[in-house]
């Protein structure tokens, strides 16, 4: 297999044996996109890249607890969250860079802002996918700003280039969106993009659900990366719960009714009424009946003759 193609799939986590097997069946000149489709069809799972695999440090085990449970080494090596409660992050580099560059310039600084935002939150698995032709010198029709940031993120094993090549003078670009969705799906993580990936939703029903539930949109406000506090809408999870594997249920917060005692909604009112004991959401008519019954019973009790002791 060509070294660049083999290295690329090993960087994604696939074993050499699986990649070579697919290349033997499809041919040495097969496009990377076709190789990835075949790997997906075979059900091949990412493994630890051999070139970067390092022995895990010894773990402390409490006395009497026995040996520590076996954890796949590629989870630790590939940047699995040490805290265990934060989801992996997969960033659509092209979407973020063009958004920061106001859809006119491929701004690599926008990618750096997004990566730093997730790092500051404690996420240790952050991957950015960018087409490899962005390494080329910028042209007038596709300007690039702060291109050196791409090389820095690649050295930190954060940025991954999706393959592209030229055939008879024409650039053949692999579909980077498929890499983004596939890696995020396998890692059970979050996709950071303002793209809806509608074509991929129609291609795979499992991906459709995943994209609908795990897509994190964002905005840039004065060079500040800002995802929404409610990624799935007003009635969905908070941003902290959305980015967490173990969401924390919110504490109930009762908002007082703005109408107070003048409220006419009765038991249909969704706000808190401190004047109603035990939060008994009675209608106005029921409250009047209860008051009338109480006053009538009090009057009859006073009208009775008192017995001598």
Write up this protein:
- It is built from 12 helices and 11 strands.
- By secondary structure, the chain is α/β, with parallel strands linked by helices.
- The chain has 3 domains: 5-42, no CATH class; 89-243, 3-Layer(aba) Sandwich (Rossmann fold), CATH 3.40.50.11980; 251-277, no CATH class.
- Strands 5-3-1-8-9 form a 5-stranded parallel β-sheet, with helices on both faces.
- Mean pLDDT is 77; it is low at 48-53 and 60-82.
What are the defining features of this structure?
309 residues; alpha/beta; Rossmann fold; 5-stranded parallel β-sheet; two-stranded parallel sheet; 12 helices; 39% helix
Short summary:
This protein is of the alpha/beta class. The protein contains twelve helices and eleven strands.
Helix content: 25-40%
Count the helices. How many? 12
| Number of beta strands | 11
Gyration radius, rounded: 30 Å
Strand content: 5-15%
Largest sheet: 5 strands, parallel
How is the CATH topology of the largest domain named?
Answer: Rossmann fold
How far apart are the termini? 109 Å
Which parts are unreliable, with pLDDT below 50 for 5 consecutive residues or more?
Answer: 48-53, 60-82
Q: What's the arrangement of strands in the largest beta sheet? A: 5-3-1-8-9
């Amino acid at each position: 297999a060509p070294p660049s193609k083999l290295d690329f799939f090993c960087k994604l986590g696939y074993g050499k044996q699986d990649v070579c097997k697919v290349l033997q069946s499809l041919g040495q000149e097969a496009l990377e996109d076709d190789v990835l489709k075949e790997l997906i069809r075979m059900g091949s799972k990412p493994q630890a890249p051999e070139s970067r695999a390092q022995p895990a440090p010894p773990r402390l085990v409490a006395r009497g607890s026995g040996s520590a449970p076996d954890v796949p080494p590629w989870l630790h090596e590939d940047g699995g969250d040490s805290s265990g409660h934060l989801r992996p992050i997969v960033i659509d580099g092209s979407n973020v860079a063009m958004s920061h560059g106001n859809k006119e310039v491929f701004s690599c600084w926008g990618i750096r802002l997004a990566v730093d935002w997730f790092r500051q939150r404690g996420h240790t698995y952050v991957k950015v996918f960018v087409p490899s032709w962005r390494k080329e010198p910028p042209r007038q029709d596709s300007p690039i700003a702060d291109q050196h940031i791409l090389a820095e993120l690649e050295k930190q094993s954060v940025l991954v280039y999706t393959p592209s090549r030229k055939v008879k003078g024409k650039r053949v670009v692999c579909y980077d969106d498929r890499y983004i969705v596939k890696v995020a799906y396998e890692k059970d993580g979050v996709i950071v993009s303002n793209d809806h990936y509608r074509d991929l939703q129609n291609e795979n029903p499992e991906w459709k659900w995943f994209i609908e539930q795990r897509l994190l949109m964002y905005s840039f406000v004065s060079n500040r990366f800002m995802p929404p506090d409610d990624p799935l809408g007003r009635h969905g999870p908070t941003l902290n719960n959305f980015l967490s594997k173990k969401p924390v249920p919110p504490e109930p917060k009762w908002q007082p009714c703005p109408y107070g005692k003048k409220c006419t909604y009765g038991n249909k009112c969704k706000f808190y009424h401190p004047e109603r004991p035990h939060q008994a959401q009675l209608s106005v008519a029921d409250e009047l009946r209860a008051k009338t019954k109480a006053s009538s019973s009090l009057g009859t009790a006073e009208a009775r003759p008192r017995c001598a002791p």
